[in-house]
From TrEMBL:
One Pfam family from the record: Bac_transf
Swiss-Prot/TrEMBL keywords: Membrane, Transferase, Transmembrane, Transmembrane helix
Protein's recorded name: Undecaprenyl-phosphate glucose phosphotransferase
Topological category with respect to the lipid bilayer: Multi-pass membrane protein
Family from the record: Belongs to the bacterial sugar transferase family.
Domain of life: Bacteria
A GO MF term: undecaprenyl-phosphate glucose phosphotransferase activity
EC identifiers of the protein: 2.7.8.31
Boundaries of every Bacterial sugar transferase domain copy: 261-445
NCBIfam families associated with the record: EPS_sugtrans (TIGR03025), WcaJ_sugtrans (TIGR03023)
Enzyme kind, highest EC tier: transferase
Localisation: Membrane
Amino acid sequence: MSTFKQGRYSVYLRPISYLIDLSIVNALALFFFFKNVEPLSFVLIVSTGWIILSTLSKFYGVYRYTREVSIVALIFRQLALFTLMIFAFSGFYNDLNISPKIIFKYVGCVFLLVALFKFTLYYLLQKYRVSFGGNYRITAIIGKNKQTSALEKFFKNNPEYGYTHKKTFNLKDKSIEDLQSCFKYIKEQHIDEIYCSVSELTNKQLNQIIDFADNNLKIVKFLPDNKDIYSKKLKYEYYNYTPILTLRDIPLEDSVNQFIKRLFDIIFSFTVIVFLLSWLTPLLAILIRIESRGPIFFKQSRNGFNYKEFDCYKFRSMTPNKNAHLHQATRGDQRVTRIGKFIRKTSIDELPQFFNVLFGDMSVVGPRPHMVSHTNMYAKRIDKFMVRHFVKPGITGLAQVSGFRGEIETDKDIINRVKYDIFYIENWSILLDIKIIVQTALNAIKGEEKAY
């Protein structure tokens, strides 16, 4: 029995979470709506609705490696769905006369308590793993290279995630005997999870490991580093009974996500235009024209969604020159005016792009669009550069707040920018957009080193 003692962890955590959340949902429902509803039927409807919605939104899909930001996203998703459900219930039973104000108070209290419980449980489990060594999983890695060394370091440096790493096996000679000795060690040490480096193993060895894991109730996971696809999110689907693996899953291809992002873009850009640009534009127009003759706005062709060209707008920060469409600003660039230095340093020059967002050519957050001449150059020279055009370009982006904005001095700069852009495309969420916007605002206040 000891071989399978660790088999499935935290088996009671999800039922307990359901029980506590449903207790909160129903207790508060009776408190807020007791005079309006028949308790038993209301509790049954609300409980059933909560379970269905949590299944659809994967609200209880929180694991030891789940990040806090992902938990917050799950809470907001469940909040939105549950609010709609309560309003639908109120509308269907119109004779109950439940006011919207009461519904919002009820939903707010529910999610305050549910979020408090969810994060309390999350941090208590981390504390439990670190302090008492409980709720842990014993791991072994087969194959040794940079990726597996990084994983081994992660296990050792993050005890709160509850992993105890035992051994990393080096299979340079790829002999069957070595693999059999790995299996013997895994059984003797009661290893729970096996992590395999695909690049260090043959297909035959991979099949042997899978068979061993299946026959001994071990969890096996893979580091697909041999194909250089470790930064991609793969999507597994069935066409009837035929399995299909999609190399890149793009959340913004989903119509609901597109609607959410577009709605956010319209509201945010309209707010900036009305409350900021309406008074800032005349002021900057005066300052720009005092220092140099020329237009207030600078228009430049750039490549956007699906590689389509559009006119990107900025406040003019340079003296008018013929090379503005060909050469990016560099450190100490003599074309930049004094007021231009300030508005570039604080990113104020980018604000007119909120009109581009309102018109639908850009988004508030996304991969930064490049000049057409630069796009054509990098498309030929930089691997996966064109992936950036799967979504609308943004005023700011993950690459920019991660230190890769401004002048591209070496190929390393643009390669890193592309990596961050692809990560953003494959991991988009409205919460990530908000995080990037906040970080952009903080960077603008501090002033950025590469903003010149």
